[in-house]
Amino acid sequence: MTVIIVTGTPGTGKTTIARKIAGEKNLKYIDVNKLIEEQHLYDALDFDRDSKIVDTGKLNRALIKIIKEEKDVVIDSHLSHYLPKKYVDKCIVTKSSLEELKKRLKKRGYKEGKIRENLDAEIFDICRIEAEEAGHDVEVVQT
Ligand SMILES: Nc1ncnc2c1ncn2[C@@H]1O[C@H](COP(=O)(O)OP(=O)(O)O)[C@@H](O)[C@H]1O
Ligand SMILES: [Mg+2]
User: Fold this and answer.
1) How far does the centroid of ligand 2 lie from the alpha carbon of residue 108, in Å?
2) What is the C-alpha separation between 111 and 24, in angstroms, rounded?
3) Which of 5, 67, 87, 116 is the most exposed, having the fewest neighbouring CB atoms within 10 Å of its CB?
4) For 43-80, how does the pLDDT look when each residue is reduced to its tens digit (9 = 90+)?
5) pTM for the full predicted model
6) Which residue's C-alpha comes closest to atom 5 of ligand 1?
7) In sequence order, which residues have a C-beta less than 8 Å from that of residue 110 and are 6 or more positions away?
8) Which listed ligand is nearest to 19 at the C-alpha?
């Protein structure tokens, strides 16, 4: 069983890296955004943020089920590091410069407030710190 999770601020390159790893290591790529949609793993919509308020308990249960079924997976999500350490072999945290991140999120059509929030998340290194706190074996990848 090989479980690699890829976390990081939106726009820092998770999907790019996760798909690459999946191809190279022959692991199944798990698109968590799609899973959240398909299985309704959110409590509500956050209109101010143009996003969903995900129930991380439900998400973890859904991901653990997939891990048990599929065995070898790469999980792509900024919420993936909330998985308990015992299910995870390696946690990649993608990071990018603020300048680059701003450019990417603008290109994605994010509103100014949402860009600001994501830049702040990157500045405070939230995903990496939370991943470390959860006890994951963290590797930082600059994109
Ligand atoms: N290593 C990289 N070098 C250059 N551009 C990258 C790299 N990784 C991602 N990008 C670009 O940054 C944007 C966001 O990448 P993406 O993988 O979708 O991030 P995330 O899944 O974290 O939101 C995409 O346009 C992608 O082409
Ligand atoms: Mg992505």
Assistant:
1) 11
2) 35
3) 116
4) 999 988 888 999 999 999 999 999 999 999 999 999 99
5) 0.97
6) 143
7) 50, 118
8) 1
